[in-house]
Design brief:
The chain is α/β, with parallel strands linked by helices. 34% of the residues lie in helices and 13% in strands. A six-stranded parallel β-sheet has the order 8-7-6-9-10-11. Strands 3-4-5 form a three-stranded parallel β-sheet, covered by helices on one side. A two-stranded parallel ribbon has the order 1-2.
Length: 361
Amino acid sequence: MVFTTPLLSALRRHQPDAHLTYVVEPDAAAIVWGNPNIDELILAPRRSGLHRLQDDVALARRLNDNGYDVAIDLHGGPRSAFLAWASRAARRIGYDITGRSWMYTDVVPRARQLMPRHSVMNQWDLLGPLGVPSIDPARDPVHMPDDAQAAHSADAQLVRMGVGPEHVLIVIHVSASTRFKRWPEDSFVSLVTALIEHDPARRVFLTSGPSDAKAAQRIADIARTRLGTMADAVLESRQFALTELRALIARAGVYVGGDSGPLHIAATTTVPIVELLGPTLAERSYPWRDPRWFSEIVDPGALPCRPCHQRTCVPGDFRCLTGIGYERVLAATERALASTSRRDREGAPTANERRIPLVHG
């Protein structure tokens, strides 16, 4: 979802008078809710069984009745392909996927191998049939609108936890959707304790997603034990709504995390980012935003099994992640914290700001 947002600004610039409708399932709608480039947002209910069939038929009729000129399938799954076809738009653009290509009038090749090419650029290929010119992350970064209510909620929670203007907030996301993207928990513990021992004014907020909801609590408990009298510097809380998570990240001095949705939500802010990559190539998944804002990637470097399709770990030890020592991540995080101050980050870059579009190795 986040990777599709640069296409919206490009389409608006290319066709300023067009009526742009975005169809999205409710769980991810917050990413584009209020996007200034969208005229209409249609929610596609996500129910199962007979209800799913009824929902799809009703939605197909609605799309058909709206009389669209162009339908772009940004997802490529069976449901989105069906809805693009059912819209009866004069032009229906989608990827060359076996069993579904016939639903489109314009078929775009899709690489079957893990190429060193960003996922946003793969999405951008779908705009080729419309003549949209080349892409630039500085001009078309990923985007997620600010949410005033979410900002108020994040501020209130930080105040309840004792976080004040004298503290430096560090947000670390400690879970991922698959084991192939999870840095070891003991490495996170070592990182957290080292950051706080270096500066007791820091407050480290640990977050985790639904794939491993207890990860933040486990890491926080061990880190607090090691820190002793400084244990209150480690924070963790319930799972956040997407808008609340973004608001929390926007208040941080740095965001640290693996290749997951929250990292790319972080990229919609100007907060410095340290990204941990295992099986994924940096060229495919670096933060897609203006290169003025600090982004550093820590990865294992060249391995014979990297990149991989994340189905089976051939060596069996997940060495692409276990081989990344916490010291390297700590050093990158310290560089990120030194890159800019929180009060200056929302404006023009400060004189001492490090402009690092991509660092990895």
